[in-house]
Amino acid sequence: STAETTSFNEIFKYFKSEIEERSEGRIKVEIYPSAQLGADRELIEGVQLGDVTMSLHSTAPAVNFVDDVAVFDIPFLFPDKETARA
């Protein structure tokens, strides 16, 4: 659901080129920026149904589907980045 002007879209384009090149064209990646397939909730539902293979979204809408994901939205859960990464 990210816009074409974001850094995420640049990462997606790199991902596409790497997958297609490494699979020698056997795998084709299609990118649908700017919420062309729907907002976060619709994308998550699309993944569940098998209509969408992969999506990137924040954790907030995922909480509606998996309660445990809410742990990532607790403010100040970790004192610093090093602790969080550990």
Structure description:
- With 86 residues, the chain is mainly α.
- It has four helices and no strands.
- It has helices at residues 7-22, 40-49, 59-62, 81-85.
- It is globular and about 45 Å long.
- The two termini are 30 Å apart.
N-to-C SSE string, H for helix and E for strand:
HHHH
Strand content: under 5%
Query: What structural class do helix, strand and pairing data support?
Result: mainly alpha
Low-confidence stretches: none
Radius of gyration: 16 Å
Give the helix level as a range of percent.
40-55%
Number of helices: 4
Compute the number of strand runs: 0
The geometry reads as globular
Query: Mean of the pLDDT scores?
Result: 92
Q: Largest sheet at a glance?
A: none
Distance between the termini: 30 Å
Q: SSE layout and pairings?
A:
Layout lengths: L6 H16 L17 H10 L9 H4 L18 H5 L1
Which structural traits does this protein have?
about 90 residues, mainly alpha
Question: What is this entry, summarized?
Answer:
With 86 residues, the protein is mainly α.
